[in-house]
Design brief:
This protein is an alpha/beta fold. It has 14 helices and 13 strands. It has a seven-stranded mixed beta sheet with strand order 2-8-7-6-5-3-4, with helices on both faces. Strand 3, helix 6 and strand 4 (134-138) form a beta-alpha-beta unit. It is globular, with a radius of gyration of 21 Å. The structure holds pyridoxal-5'-phosphate. Pyridoxal-5'-phosphate binds next to helix 5.
């Protein structure tokens, strides 16, 4: 007998998160130059990070021997001002992944369940299982969340519903009216996590008034991140917005210093860089058009996306994925998301997208 023999079945059932292959790994395995490799696998910002964030990191370097401000006072103050919420409504996380897990730990445990959609973000089942709760996966409709079916799937033991809008990896978007109607249907004692990791890429009219909804739905938690449009994925910083009494409980669960000092400084600086954000969105809008036009020329179906990525149906995913890898392009297989015939391609710069399309043409026609 070993202690690991007593580790509960829910932990053993966890399928580890499969990240996009790091550039350094492909360089090592294929003997390629890292500079020649294009990674379109993890929905990272092809513009890099805001110059203001980089400058803030350099300034913050002088103090890396000190613990960060565990309360995140400056970043919370900046967020509160920008978003029009109270500081007491904000919970910072080591990436929004961290706050998603805090939500799971707050509401889930043995003899409870969480509801989420088929093809939804992989962290939801992961966090659910880690808490020994049951995951109720609701079949998708046209690759997106079927809100009516999700409302119907809520059971007596359900404590949490996860919604990603837009969703990753499918890129599907829910209409605000439909989402609002769904929130009205969810019982008051069930928490709803509305994950808005890609919100900044949406045209203004498509953005749900999710923070206004916090007043109407005390069980709502909105999560956002600096990893995508703000270009700070490597630093790990995200946040949850909720009613103060919910935020207070989440705060009790987090590590005392869960967001590092460089991340706090960079996020605060990035928040004010509206030019960078606008340029990220402009580049993404153009890149999505470029990629989807290319897929259409190749006769490949794709799932219309509102994120900074798009799933394209290539059929023989293993062959195409490997063919792209051999030619220095990393994309993301999504078989683990129940999409065995698709590859997810993150939007890159115009040149990166062009190279992906040219290489995909070569591989598909080989
Ligand atoms: C990328 C992503 C996140 C979180 O990323 P973090 O880097 O942990 O902030 C959350 N939700 C969805 C749907 C995502 O795609």
């Amino acid at each position: 007998m070993h202690p690991i023999d007593k580790v509960p079945a829910n932990i053993r059932a966890i399928a580890p998160y499969q990240p996009g292959m790091p550039i350094t790994e492909l360089a090592r395995e294929m003997g390629q130059e890292a500079d020649d490799i294009v990674k379109l696998a993890s929905n990272e910002n092809p513009l890099g990070a805001s110059p203001r964030a980089r400058a803030a990191i350099e300034r913050a370097l002088a103090d890396v021997h000190l613990y960060p401000d565990g309360s995140g006072y400056a970043l919370k103050t900046a967020l509160a001002r920008r978003l029009g919420v109270e500081r007491e409504q904000i919970v910072l996380g080591n990436g929004s992944n961290d706050v998603l897990e805090l939500c799971a730990r707050l509401f889930l445990g043995a003899h409870t369940s969480a509801v989420y959609a088929q093809h939804a973000f992989a962290v939801y089942p992961l966090a659910t299982r880690a808490c020994a709760a049951v995951g109720v996966e609701v079949p998708a409709r046209a690759y997106g969340h079927d809100l009516e079916a999700m409302a119907a799937a809520i059971r007596d033991d359900t404590r949490l519903v996860f919604i990603a809008n837009p969703n990753n990896p499918t890129g599907t978007l829910l209409e605000s009216a439909a989402l609002h109607a769904f929130l009205q249907k969810v019982p008051a004692d069930v928490a709803i996590v509305l994950d808005e990791a890609y919100r900044e890429y949406l045209d203004e009219p498509l953005r749900a008034p999710s923070l206004e909804w916090l007043a109407e739905f005390p069980n709502l938690i909105v999560t956002r991140t600096f990893s995508k449009a703000y270009g700070l994925a490597g630093l790990r910083v995200g946040y949850a917005l909720a009613r103060p009494e919910v935020a207070d409980l989440l705060e009790r669960l987090r590590q005392p210093f869960n967001v590092n000092a460089l991340a706090l400084a960079a996020a605060e600086a990035a928040l004010d860089d509206e030019d960078f954000l606008a340029e990220s969105k402009r580049l993404n809008d153009a890149g999505l058009k470029q990629l989807t036009a290319g897929f259409r020329r190749l006769g490949l179906e794709y799932i219309p996306s509102w994120g900074n990525f798009v799933c394209v149906r290539v059929g023989e995913t293993a062959r195409v994925y490997q063919g792209l890898l051999r030619r220095g392009i990393i994309v993301r297989p999504v078989g683990n998301y129940g999409l065995p015939e698709h590859l997810r391609v993150s939007v890159g710069t115009e040149a990166q997208n062009a190279r992906l399309l040219a290489t995909l043409t070569e591989v598909v026609q080989a």
